[in-house]
Structures are given as structure tokens and as C-alpha cells.
Write a structure and sequence with these properties.
The protein has 545 residues and is mainly α. The chain is built from 31 helices and no strands. Among the domains are: 211 residues, Tetratricopeptide repeat domain (Serine Threonine Protein Phosphatase 5, Tetratricopeptide repeat, Alpha Horseshoe); 91 residues, no CATH class; 74 residues, no CATH class. Helix 25 packs antiparallel against helix 26 and helix 26 packs antiparallel against helix 27. The longest helix has 20 residues. It is flat and about 85 Å long. The two termini are 62 Å apart.
Length: 545
């Protein structure tokens, strides 16, 4: 059974390892022929290889394999021969003939052209083939041989990625740490290796944060991020471990150790001279991150103390107050947060935050009062606050009050009358007042969405002909929406009890819009509901009956 610390380590990195798709993304440079070598090919060689490459790109593996084999037969001493053998081997992999790919393909490259770049690539692909065959022991051996001979080559970087995956499956945490360190510190980063090395540095940092080694964690991140970027990424990757560690009495001392080191690290980065704008920004940033470490460590009493120091150093402003208020909200101390918002220099923004905090707690009435007051106070943006007030009324289940507010906005903010009519329609729709919703949506200019909403309301009223008519107007006037609308025609006709018409509509979706998600949905529905097999792109004989 894993102990708590071991389970934390595994949990912290379980979702961070690189996947097979990431490996294949990096495989491209290994199985491409460089331009300088293409230039060395004779015209006939180049032509034959281009034919093979064409079929390979089309994923016609059997034909591509045959064309690469033809190249090797005709041009066995060509500059492109080891490349053709490599690609022939990869065709075998795609055809799931992995043993053939290893023994007759990749191994042949290594035997006949041992000094070629294709030989190095082949040594990686051998390990990959064994891994895919479920033979991790052989895969690890192949990868280790590759790393031993070509430690910093891209193929060796990719080998470490696969070894990380194997170590994850086998639960070999020590091996993962060694591989992360290799990728973080020993590999020269370039366009091909940068992403994987950066990811390894982040995983290594998270591991160290979970084990209480803050300095090692920030050191790992420093290999990826500039000094300007580092503070943000340190708190970003350390916050989770600190929060999780301090949640348990057993691991709380470790979490607090990391938090203490994090606070000290941030304070060490604060410039002594903050007379310039850049230095002042840096200092504030580091103070904020120090406060974030205290919050992550669940030391709620220390967070306001940090902000007191920030205010003492820089004076009070809305950014500082906003971050402090956000802490109080996160700590479920909402009344204290509202008191902080009340101190904003921008009184209107402070009041809006107070109203929003009430809305978050579903305390609708005080929020409505504040929005109404803001509409009277803010001469520049009264309509914004009336809109927020109306939306809050909707949340409070005050349908008629919300509609009244929106109608007033249609008059006062006539340039956006269509937008406010849309809100009225949505309000009536949310309260199942279908006829009134249809009337409101009709007043908007939001085509085709208004027609879609009106059709849905007609369906609720069982007015199926009206709904179908609207869907066909969408089909005729908005091609991107046509597949969706035609699918809805099918569902609507089924609701209306017109089975045959519904089936024809679903079949039309399959035949007219075969490459869309709606076609897949219609195809599945025909099979499940009506036991009809429709071919995407055309109807079957059963469907025609």
C-alpha cells in the first residue's frame, strides 16, 4: 500500500506526462530527409522517392511500402537508401507488422548504414515498437542503448519521453525523477526539444514542491522561465502542492515549509529602490505573490498583515484593495470583502463589486437596490447597470419586473433595442411563457438565432407547422445553420407524429450534410429509433423503402 507521501507524488504528476500524440509530434524531424540530402539525389531517385512520399502522406501504407521497396531495389547505393529503408519500416508499423518493422526494417538501417542519421532514428523506433507491442523490458533496453550512445540527440529526448511513460505505468517514481532531471538540466534546448524539456522542468518542480524542496523546485522552473517570468510561475506551480499538503495534519509541516520558503523567495526579489515604474511594478507583484503563498498555506490571519505592509509601502489603491477583497471572498469572509470594496477610490466599481458579491450568494434584493442606485449615479453608463438590475431580477424569479426593466431600456437605449428585445425573449422563454417569448424574439434583428428560439417555443406549444416553417427559413437563408435546422425538422415532424416525413428529413441530413456532426447524429438516430441503416452521403436500400 502506498503511504500518503507516495500517493501525493503520484497524484501530483499523473496528468502531466507527455502522451503518445506529443511523441509523434516530435517524430517528424527524425523521419524527414533534410533538404541538403534531397539535393544530392539524382533526378530518377528524387522522382521515385516523391512517388513513395505521396502515398505515405495519403496513408496508403501498402502502396507506399511497395514504392519505397522499389527505390531500394533500383538505388541501393543512393544517398536516399537509408531513408527509404526507414520509411519502409514505418509503413510496416502502420500495417501493424511490428516484428517485421524491427527485424527486417529498422535493424537493417542500423546494420547497413550505422553512421547515418536514420540509424539513430531507427534505434528510437525500435524501442517505440517494443513499447507498442507491450514489451517494456525490451523497449527500455533499446532506449537506454540509444541514450548511452547519443545522449543529447532528439531521438534520445524522445526516448526519455517514452521511458517516463513506462516509469509512470510501473510506478517507478525514482526513475521519473532521474529522467525529469536529465531533460531539465542536461539537454540543450532548441525548437524541437524546448517543449518537452520545459514540461519536464515543470513536472520536476511540482515533485520538489510536494516533497518540501522549494529551492530545487524554483531552480527547475528557472531553467524554463526568465527572471521576470519566474515569480508568477513559482506561485502558479507551488500553490497546489501547498494547499494540498496543508490540508492534512500529517503533511502540514511540509506545506508550511514550502510556503515559508516561497514567501522568503518573493521578498528576496523585491527591489530595494522602487523609484522607477518597472521596479515598483516588480515589488508589488512579489508582495502579492507572498500574500498568495500565505493564503495557499491556509494562514488566513497572515494575509491581511501582508496587505497592510503593501499599503504601507505603496499607499492604498483599488488594485490592492481588489486583491485583498478577493482573498476575503475566497476565504468565505464576504462581509469583510464588501467592507473593502466600499473603500474603492472608484466608488462605482466598488459598489458594482458589492452587488456582484450579493448576487454570488443569491441575495438578490440588496444587489437589485445597488444596481438601481448605480444607474442613477453613473451618468456615463446608466444602461449597463439597468441591464444588470434586470438580469438580477431574472435570477430572482421576478419575470415581470425584469421585462419591465428591459422594456424601459428599449426606449432609453434605442440603439440597442434589438439586444434588449432579445433579453425579453430569453426571460419569457426561461419562465415558459412561450407566446410572449415568440413575440419578443420577433422584434429582434438576431437572425438566425431568433428564428431558432421562436421555433423551439412553437414546439413547446405543439405548433409544429409553424416551427418547421421557421426551420426551413433558416435552411434557405443561413447555410452554416442548415444541417442543424434540417435535423430539427426531423425531430419536430417526429413530435408531430409524422414518422415518414421525419425519416426523410433525417435521411436528407445524412445525404446533404454527410460531413457534419448533425449527419452523425441523424445516422445514429435512424438506426436506434427506426432501425434504418443510412449511409452518410446517401441513403441505403432500406432507407429508400
Amino acid at each position: 500500500m502506498l503511504n500518503f507521501k507516495s500517493s501525493l507524488l503520484i497524484k501530483s504528476t499523473l496528468g502531466l506526462f507527455l502522451t503518445f500524440s506529443a511523441v509523434t509530434a516530435f517524430a517528424a524531424p527524425l523521419d524527414q530527409l533534410p533538404l541538403d540530402r534531397w539535393a544530392k539525389l539524382r533526378e530518377a531517385e528524387r522522382y521515385q522517392l516523391q512517388v513513395a512520399e505521396k502515398y505515405y502522406r495519403e496513408q496508403n501504407w501498402k502502396v507506399a511500402l511497395s514504392e519505397y521497396e522499389k527505390f531500394m531495389s533500383l538505388h541501393e547505393k543512393s544517398e536516399g537508401a537509408p531513408y527509404a529503408q526507414l520509411k519502409w519500416s514505418q509503413c510496416q508499423v502502420q500495417l501493424r507488422k511490428l516484428n517485421t518493422a524491427v527485424k527486417d526494417g529498422f535493424q537493417s538501417v542500423m546494420d547497413y548504414w550505422p553512421d547515418s542519421q536514420e540509424a539513430i532514428a531507427s534505434s528510437y523506433f525500435i524501442g517505440r515498437a517494443y513499447k507498442d507491442m507491450g514489451e517494456p523490458k525490451k523497449a527500455k533496453q533499446a532506449y537506454q542503448n540509444l541514450i548511452g550512445k547519443h545522449k543529447t540527440h532528439l531521438a534520445a529526448v524522445m526516448a526519455r519521453m517514452d521511458l517516463l511513460d513506462i516509469a509512470r505505468i510501473e510506478g517507478d517514481q525514482a526513475r521519473r525523477i532521474t529522467l525529469w532531471r536529465d531533460l531539465t538540466y542536461d539537454i540543450k534546448r532548441d525548437n524541437d526539444s524546448q517543449a518537452v524539456c520545459a514540461d519536464a522542468s515543470r513536472q520536476l518542480a511540482v515533485h520538489y514542491f510536494y516533497t518540501g524542496s522549494f529551492d530545487e523546485g524554483q531552480k527547475a522552473l528557472a531553467t524554463t522561465y526568465t527572471p521576470e517570468q519566474l515569480p508568477y510561475h513559482v506561485i502558479y506551480y507551488a500553490r497546489g502542492p501547498v494547499q494540498e499538503l496543508t490540508a492534512s495534519a500529517e503533511t502540514k509541516p511540509t506545506g508550511e515549509k514550502v510556503a515559508d520558503a516561497g514567501v522568503a523567495f518573493m521578498k528576496s526579489l523585491i527591489p530595494a529602490d522602487v523609484s522607477t515604474a518597472a521596479a515598483k511594478t516588480r515589488a508589488r507583484e512579489c508582495w502579492f505573490y507572498a500574500a498568495d503563498f500565505e493564503a495557499a498555506a491556509r494562514r488566513s490571519e497572515k494575509v491581511p498583515q501582508v496587505y497592510e505592509q503593501i499599503i504601507k509601502t505603496f499607499g492604498v489603491d483599488d488594485e490592492i484593495l481588489g486583491r485583498l477583497a478577493a482573498f476575503y471572498k475566497a476565504d468565505n469572509r464576504r462581509e469583510e470583502a464588501r467592507k473593502v470594496y466600499q473603500k474603492f477610490q472608484n466608488a462605482i466599481e466598488g459598489q458594482s463589486q458589492v452587488a456582484y458579491s450579493y448576487r454570488e450568494e443569491q441575495k438578490w434584493d440588496p444587489a437589485i437596490v445597488i444596481y438601481r442606485n448605480l444607474a442613477a449615479q453613473d451618468q456615463k453608463l446608466p444602461h449597463r447597470w439597468k441591464g444588470e438590475m434586470a438580469q438580477t431580477m431574472r435570477y430572482a424569479q421576478k419575470c415581470d419586473d425584469a421585462v419591465t426593466a428591459y422594456r424601459q431600456l428599449m426606449v432609453e437605449d434605442s440603439e440597442k433595442a434589438s439586444q434588449w428585445a432579445w433579453e425579453i425573449g430569453c426571460t419569457y422563454r426561461d419562465f415558459s411563457r412561450w407566446q410572449e417569448a415568440i413575440k419578443a424574439f420577433r422584434e429582434t434583428e438576431n437572425f438566425p438565432e431568433a428564428y431558432k428560439q421562436m421555433a423551439a417555443c412553437h414546439r413547446q406549444l405543439k405548433e409544429f407547422k409553424e416551427a418547421i416553417s421557421l426551420y426551413y427559413q433558416v435552411i434557405g437563408s443561413d447555410p452554416p445553420s442548415a444541417p442543424w435546422a434540417l435535423l430539427q425538422v426531423g425531430y419536430t415532424q417526429e413530435q408531430a407524429g409524422e414518422k415518414e416525413k421525419a425519416i426523410r428529413a433525417f435521411q436528407q441530413v445524412c445525404s446533404k450534410h454527410s460531413k457534419t456532426g448533425q449527419a452523425s447524429e441523424a445516422h445514429a438516430y435512424l438506426q436506434d429509433k427506426f432501425k434504418i441503416n443510412a449511409t452518410l452521403g446517401g441513403d441505403t436500400a432500406d432507407a429508400e423503402k
